[in-house]
Amino acid sequence: MLNKFVSGSVVLDTALHNQIGQKIGSKGLRTRQKLIETTIELLETHGLRDLSVADIARAASTSPATFYVYFEGVPEVLLAALEHVTQSTPELVKMAEENWSELGQQDRARRFVELYCAHWWRWRTVFRCRNLASEEGDIRFQEARRQSVAPLIEALTGQIMRAQSKGLVPDNLSPRASAGAILTLLERLAAVGPLTPEQPDMSFETLKDAAAYMVAALTVGR
After folding, report:
1. Which residues have a Cβ under 8 Å from the Cβ of 215 and sit 6 or more positions away?
2. Closest Cα partner for 71 from 10, 12, 159?
3. pLDDT exceeds cutoff 70 at 103
4. Cα torsion at 209, 157, 144, 40 (round to 10°)?
C-alpha cells in the first residue's frame, strides 16, 4: 500500500544527517527511505512496540547495524514518516477555508467528509500507530498528532466563526472546540467506517452522509 511512500521527498532532503552527525549522501538517503517504507509495511501487521529492529533490517535486506546508522529505534522511524504525512492536506485545508454557505453547503460538507476519509484510510497505518503511541503518553507523538490537525482546526474554526457572525451557528459554541469535535468525529469515522458491516439503513456511505450533515450544521448552520 505504501510503496510510493513520501514520493521521493526523503531522497531530495539533502540536509539530513545520520545518528553520528554525518551528512547523508544519496545512497544513504535511499537506504533510509527503504527503512521507512519497510517499517510502515510491517506496521500493517505488527504493533509498534512488537516490531523489532531485526525484523525491519531483515525485511529491508540490510543489517541492524545499518538501521542504527539512521535511526535510534523503531518509534523514530515512524516519527520520520510523520514528517511527510499530514491529516491537513492542502486540498482539505483549501476546502475548509472556502465559504460553504455560498457554495452549496451540504454537497461541500459531503465532499469534505469523503476526501478526509479517503486520505485517512490511505495512510491509516501511519495514523493508527501514531495515535496509539500518543495515547500511551509519548509526547513526541502527541505533538506530531497536534501538528497534523492544526491547519484544519484553524480553517474550520474560521468557517464556524463566519457562520456565527451571520447568526447561523449559536454564539455559545466555542469555534475551536467545535472544529475539534468535527475532526474527532471524522477521524473515528475514517478509521472504522470502511470496516462497518452492511446493515439495513447503515453502511459506510450512510455514515458519511450523516457525518456530512453534522459537519454542515456546525459550520454553516444548515
Report:
1. 109, 112, 113, 182, 185, 186
2. 10
3. no
4. 20
Measured CA to CA, the distance from residue 112 to residue 132 in angstroms comes to 25
Q: Say whether pLDDT at 107 is over 90.
A: no
Q: Quick one: angle between helices 124-135 and 26-43, nearest 10?
A: 80
pLDDT tens, residue by residue, 141-196: 999 999 999 999 999 999 999 889 989 899 999 999 999 999 999 999 999 988 87
Q: Which residue, chain included where needed, has cell 474554526?
A: 157
CA 217 from chain center: how many Å? 24
Distance CA 102, CA 71 (A): 49
Tell me the H-state helices in 123-203.
124-135, 139-165, 175-192
| Residue 139 exposure: Cα atoms within 13 Å on the Cβ side | 0
CA 219 – CA 213 distance, rounded (Å) = 10
Cα–Cα distance for residue pair 187/78, rounded to 1 Å: 19
Give CA–CA dist 181/149, Å, rounded: 12
Residue range 30-79, pLDDT digits in tens: 999 999 999 999 999 998 989 999 999 999 999 999 999 999 999 999 99
Looking at the DSSP bridge assignments, the partners of residue 94 are: none
Label residue 222 by pLDDT band (50, 70, 90).
low
- CA dist., res. 115 & res. 188, Å (int): 14
